[in-house]
């Protein structure tokens, strides 16, 4: 059933022509745990070609085993689904991992895969959780209904994995949904036939057919059968809710939920904003990079390349490729990116993140986003560049535009936040409060205006709430490592390009020229010394450099407020501008950039005029 | 009545979902038209959390406005 037109991902140690075993399942069903216990330690992880979605490949004897992103069905509603769909269509055998406690939801995918004619083994995972919920499952009956082997497991404890290994060799096609099978067009393979009936654009195009609009009907037929099977197979021995269920409900309680969220954000601020962004970075950037690495590399390269020459400035100058770029990436970004992804992975795997999305949904809809936008917004406080990449997960183009714009305008990244904190703190609580409130208002206002201006509709929140669980350490560490690596591999070149650009501008005198050109605006409209323009420009290189440049100007409290506001709104750093141009296209990215600068100047000027305290 | 008008703890049958994508996704989640579910929580002005068996699903307020339900005895 494998189609040759698809590329084979991450197949280094897997023998050529090996049978492909693909793991498929809903999100949060323990698929990765099954994958790792099946394949052992030798696993290769890579990006699926042309996407940011990770897939893992490993070996089980002579078989190639592939893990896919968790999905609710084989379709192409988003990037993760497209990857899973592509992998499933290439499979020789499918191991379908099912959450025993959520059989009714998971059976949709199971039946879809069976309808598509693949040899299948159903792994009924989390049997312990189902028992704790008072659910009793008749496995023999389930196996008879599906026509395939059903293996009960508790993957995190390794229970049942040996049985899965044995069953894989015996995998065979199951009992399809008759009402669907009978409608598959002649001369078409079963998997393609199901995809055609479900209006899959790519498969329809391959057969030169127009989607017939039968998807919903097919989905309903399958859902009916899934519900019937659950009725016959599952019985409930008690109605009692487990502690995790109760805790899960408290997290969405109007009062306790809000308190828990405040606690969550407080912990996040402390761990990421204080411990990582200040304490850890003080060691990695200032000591490791500043005291050891930079003097070392400048000395080494300086022997062959005069530091004052044009090339010397670009390579080992103040903003050089081997100096600033390396120090920035390794000393500053690496700990931040690791810290943020570690935190996010814990929140995700414990099942708390979807609940945060529910809690903030109302606020997010005001700015044309939905609760799911909480992920890029949280990441934005770490690194706006990293956050901009994750806007890909949003449902519509409209939301991606709004989220990118708000990130670039009103979310200060952690590097910048650290400098802002240091400069604002001595001014006292009134100024701090003003800054936070004004920034929050600008965020809300800009989002609300954009939400009205942009045509179309944003997508609504529609998410499945997984039960709260204690996350698995190995899963979290792996996810953190993969995401951090994925981001740095994708973004480092933009940081490098940015530094070349600025070094060139600096060495050729263009930087001074722009600074002088901006001076009238800086002095008369913003009421700041002309050198402040230089600091704003430095903000392009690194947002925190911009803010740091303001230190030495001897600004009054009033001027400090105006300057910090302008710097925050002004523009993200040059790397995030480039990612923005890449993600949103040149035209839209450029518009966002120009609007950011204009708004920064407008709001800065207004603040200068209305702030009388 | 629409989903946003239900009360926490109330059982109902979903009669229609006036959103193409949500309708498909709901079928996959197992909380589709014709399903019997319970309103778990409503966040003030925010999403509605619906439960069917052990399955919980959160729907944004704007979506809840477009979902018709018929209350049934708990």
Brief synopsis:
The complex is a heterodimer of chains A (613) and B (74). Chain A is α/β, with parallel strands linked by helices.
Question: What is the element layout, followed by pairings?
Answer:
The complex is a heterodimer of chains A (613) and B (74).
Chain A: E1 20-25, H1 31-39, E2 43-47, E3 54-60, E4 63-67, H2 79-89, E5 93-99, H3 103-115, E6 119-125, H4 127-132, E7 135-137, H5 139-146, E8 149-152, H6 161-169, E9 172-173, H7 178-181, H8 190-197, H9 201-206, H10 215-233, E10 234-236, H11 243-250, H12 256-302, H13 310-316, H14 321-349, H15 352-366, H16 374-380, H17 384-390, H18 397-410, H19 414-424, H20 429-453, E11 462-465, H21 473-507, H22 510-525, H23 532-541, H24 543-549, H25 557-570, H26 574-584, H27 586-610
Parallel strand pairs in A: 1-4, 1-5, 5-6, 6-8
Antiparallel strand pairs in A: 2-3, 3-4, 6-9, 7-10
Helix pairs in contact in A: 3-10, 5-10, 12-14, 12-19, 13-21, 14-21, 16-17, 17-26, 18-20, 18-26, 18-27, 19-24, 19-25, 21-26, 22-23, 23-24, 23-25, 25-27, 26-27
Chain B: E1 11-17, H1 20-29, E2 36-42, E3 48-52, E4 55-59, H2 61-64, E5 67-72
Antiparallel strand pairs in B: 1-2, 1-5, 2-3, 3-4
